Amino acid sequence: MSGRAQLMWDEAVTGYDFGPGHPMDPVRLALTRSLVGAFGLDRAVDVVAAKPAGESTLRLVHREDYIEAVKAASADPAAADQSYGLGTVDDPAFAGMHEVSALIAGQSVGAAEAVWRGEADHAVNFAGGLHHAMPGAASGFCIYNDASLAIARLLELGAERVAYVDVDVHHGDGVQAAFWEDPRVLTISLHEHPRTLFPQTGWPEEVGAGAGEGSAVNVALPAGTADAGWVRAFHAVVPELVADFRPQVLVTQHGADTHFEDPLAHLAVSLDAQRAVQVACHELAHEYAGGKWVALGGGGYEVVDVVPRSWTHLVGVAAGREVAPEALVPEGWRQEVFARTRQLGPGRMTDGRWPVGWVGWEAGYDPADRLDQAVLATRRAVFPLRGLLA
To answer: Which of 218, 235, 322, 332 has its CA 20 to 30 A from that of 212?
Structure first.
């Protein structure tokens, strides 16, 4: 199977369900899997269901007392211990929570193992990317931090350099915290500015500590940032750092909540720009990481119009079968959308903004421009620590 992409999928991941009215509606996962199938992409990948992450794997990142608290809340949701972030408005406890959270984590760990061992060049787990969970607490709709667990497993297997790039609208705080002092892991997060969005972290001055100083990178984007600025910021920071770090594996998180339709945030990014960054991550993996790429999902709360299309593009990019932006969405899938949600599904795989236009950093910058100020703050905070020119 070497050389093919893997799609990590077990239908049971749709049991990650915080209940009616919660933004993290598992229909987004089911509809994404259906759209991947409607485009025939599952014939271009190996669809694999990995086993759940066991306790020894979970303990690579999470404290034992927290794992026990999750198991207790999973068995009796009414007894959830809120001191661990469980049973809260963001993270309501539900029966079977431990089991399905461990299953999602297992898919990301399995993806990392397959890529590291050469069983696949690329692996996608769009059910993953639950980047807010901390070693000892649930946070931001995230119970177990599958992204951190995948990276920790790579280190356990012998990886010496892993780069993590997070383009979710929210700061990848849990992954940053897990590797705050670890120079083997470079974490880069592009997100809406912490002044205006949860979790109120991810300032450019957060650069890591100890031996890991300079290994945490944060680009805090002004609310309202749209395609040209978002893609410009990505290319002004990420490729140069990845080229310098030369990771053995690239792990990326592709939360779809940067989209202008997302109800929980304030960026104005299109599906087409999300696709452009997915393609850029794929290229970075081949140029600097020997093609080894683990791609995860993440946030995204416009569960019909945005998430399924964005992550279907991601699967297509990883499979080497990119879905054309102008492609019509299969009618059978649109009928499924209506049957499940009573909403009308999108008609095409684009927001009409392809190709995305943007101006590279090497063309110069405007010190009065808010987007350029954000990029400058990041470059000045981190690049000198890595021996690079700000």
So the answer is: 235
- pLDDT for 91 equals 98
Each residue's pLDDT tens digit, 186-222 = 999 999 999 999 999 999 999 999 999 999 999 999 9
Nearest to 143 by CA among 94, 210, 197: 94
CB 302 within 8 A of CB 261: yes
Catalytic-labelled residue, pool 132, 171, 191, 235:
132
State how far the alpha carbon of 84 is from the alpha carbons of 67, 88, 98, 212, 279, in Å. Answer: 10, 9, 14, 27, 37
Angle in degrees, CA 265, 277, 356, rounded to 5: 90
pLDDT at 277: 98
pLDDT, position 44: 96
Angle between helical axes of 227-245 and 370-382 (0-180°, round to 10): 10
Q: Per this entry, what is the length of the chain?
A: 390
The segments of the chain whose pLDDT lies below 50 read: 1-2
The pLDDT value given to residue 4: 87
> Residue with structure tokens 């177990």?
144
pLDDT in tens, 281-310: 999 999 999 999 999 999 999 999 999 999
For this structure, is 132 an active site residue?
yes
183 preceded by a cis bond (ω within 30 of 0): no
Q: Amino acid identity of 152?
A: A
Listed in sequence order, the residues at least 6 apart from 73 whose beta carbon sits closer than 8 Å to its beta carbon are 79, 80, 81, 86, 87, 93, 97, 98
Q: How far apart are CA 96 and CA 16, in angstroms?
A: 9
Sheet holding 122-125, edge to edge: 45-48, 5-8, 122-125, 293-296, 249-253, 162-166, 185-192, 216-221
